[in-house]
Every structure is written in C-alpha cells, then in structure tokens.
Amino acid sequence: MTERTEVELLDAEYGSVIHGNKVDGKVVDQLDALASALADIAAGLGSNITTDELLHHVCTLIVDTIPGADMAGVTLLSETGSPRTAANTDSAVIDVDFDQYASREGPCLEAARTRSVVSATVAESESRWPTFSAHLGNAGVQSFLSAPLWVDERHAGALNIYGRGPHGFSEVDVLIVRVYTTSIEGLLRIAREVEFARNEIAGLNAAMKSRATIEQAKGILMAIRGFDSESAFRVLVEESQRSQQKLSVIAEQILKRAEAAR
Predict the structure, then answer these.
(1) End-of-domain residue from the set 176, 198, 220
(2) What is the pTM of this model?
(3) Using an 8 Å Cβ cutoff, are 176 and 159 in contact?
(4) Which segment, 58-62, 211-215, 245-249, is predicted with the most confidence on average?
C-alpha cells in the first residue's frame, strides 16, 4: 500500500475545514508554518548536521508551528524497548519524559508503542495514566500531544509536544503533527544514511592513514635492523600486544623516535 501524500491526508481528514466555503485563517497560518518548517529541515540535509542535531531542529520548529506548544522532545525506543529522550527544547521535557519512563506509561510511550497519535489534557491523563499523572504537579505541563516517529529501521519513537496551559490540542493540531511526522520520517532516513556514509568515509580515511603509518614504521625497522617486511610487521604486532596499544599507535611512536633522531 502506497503512502498517502500530505494533500491526501488533509483532504481525507479535514477537507471541510481547509476547502470549505470559509477557510479558517489560523489553519492557513499553521499550514504555512508547516510548509516553512519542512522546507527548513530539508535545507539542512545538505550540511554536516548530525541526526541528533536534526531531531533538535525538528522539535524547535514544531513548537513554532503549533499554537499552545511550549516545549517538545523526541523519545526513541531501543531495540529492547528501552526509551530515551534524544532531543528536547526545554529541560522540563526531560523531567516529564522521565516520569513516563519510570511509570512505564504516558502519551509518549503510548504513541511510540501503538503507532498512533495521542492527545490529552491533564484531566484526561488522570484516568488514562494514573501513575504518571501523580507526578505531574511539579512539571507544570497540562496538555499533551504525541505522534509516532520512525527515525530508522531500528528506532521507533515519538515526537512529543507539551503545553503548560490546560487548553489541550485541537484536531487541526493533530493533523498538522501527523503530516509533519510523516514528512520528516523520510528526511530523517536520508539524514541517517548521509551520516552513516560520512562516518564510513571518515573510517576509511583513518584506516588509510593508519595503514600508511604502519608501512612507514615497517620501513624504518627494515632499514635500521635489517628485517624483512614480514619480520618487521611481526615486531610491531608483538610490541602492540605487549603494551596493549593499537598497532597504529606503536607505528606512530616509531616514526616520532626516528624523526627525533635525525
């Protein structure tokens, strides 16, 4: 089954709100903000931004897009299901998330586990997540909106939006967040692939540099002690094992001593 586009989602869910005879100006403003946010995120993919930095950017932009959103964060589940807060716009997010992790219930965990959008007020949370709600007094958060988010094949999670007021979040807010997360999932996958490729290239460059250093150290041993290539390499390996240091470190030390002796 093919994924529906953002326009199809809008038509299916709230076509009457957006395409009716009288368009709500606030809805138009939110859609404009959503489009700008997505364009901003897409533009950042060409830089050296890391996935964690991109997730923080995602949180910042959704707070600017959703009225009544005071803070946002991203919860990621490990392969074993353990949650962690990967990004946040406010330290209070960490406190609210921690209470959910400790109680093993709450909007962010429900969204991540059920793959559905979760919206609730503090009054509604008392019956839905009583253990979590018992700790909410100190956090000052009264409105919750969490949407499922896949960062990659191994990391399910949720984008969590918190408001300090008791207003809750509207159906349009829910729609905006659904479209937002659906769109950025693809961008996040691209970002992860770019980051992986960048790390692979960095690793190859480091390996090539290390190999060059080892070859130079072998050459020095061959010239000074008359070893053949195999014997010189064996000496490096034995010293590496004896000193419990990497082969490249031993080779670098030999190069430095040779340079100092000149």
Answers:
(1) 198
(2) 0.63
(3) no
(4) 58-62
Phi, psi of 119 (to 5 degrees): -130, 135
User: Containing domain of residue 231, as a range?
Assistant: 206-260
Q: Which among 19, 3, 9 is positioned nearest to 178, based on CA atoms?
A: 9
- pLDDT, position 146: 96
Residue type (1 letter), 149: L
pLDDT of res. 197: 58
Amino acid at site 19: H
- Residue 75 binned pLDDT confidence (cut-offs 50, 70, 90): very high
The answer to whether the beta carbons of residues 96 and 70 sit under 8 Å apart is no
| Least confident stretch, 12-26, 63-77, 167-181 | 12-26
Instruction: State whether 37 and 159 are in the same domain.
Output: yes
- CA 217 to the chain's CA centroid: 41
Provide the angle, in degrees to the nearest 10, between the axes of the packed helices 51-65 and 25-44.
170
131/256 same-domain check: no
Q: What is the pLDDT of residue 33?
A: 67
Alpha carbons 18 and 31: distance in angstroms, whole number: 10
Residue 1 covered by a domain: no
Q: For residues 78 and 84, give the distance between their C-alpha atoms in angstroms, rounded to a whole number.
A: 8
Instruction: Tell me the three state secondary structure of residue 9.
Output: helix
Interhelix angle 6-19/171-225, nearest 10 degrees = 150
End-to-end C-alpha distance for the chain, whole angstroms: 70
What does each C-alpha distance from 248 to 200, 232, 239 come to in angstroms?
Answer: 19, 14, 11
Name the E strands within 153-248: 155-163
